[in-house]
Amino acid sequence: xxxxxxxxxxxxxxxxxxxxxxxxxxxxxxxxxxxxxxxxxxxxxxxxxxxxxxxxxxxxxxxxxxxxxxxxxxxxxxxxxxxxxxxxxxxxxxxxxxxxxxxxxxxxxxxxxxxxxxx
Length: 119
Prior knowledge:
4-stranded antiparallel sheet; mainly beta
């Protein structure tokens, strides 16, 4: 049984940093875990993904150089977010799937956690 639970987020000032964590269970070595976000009135968009081996990572152009995805030995996938701006506001979801930027390639999703960037 695959289970994904996000934590972290909340309110962050512009230019600030925060880290999201995704506690993952039931993920196979051949899988990947991705982070996606959805702003009000917008489609869910890809943020970053990591192979479960931790070897391969991919980032959306909008976050490259500011966000870092990593997997720790405790089966958690973290998303370190730096230099945040208002466009980073949204509900952040982690998901299990294949190594892809497309949401439809992910079949298990967490419940989401809100990140609001505002002064």
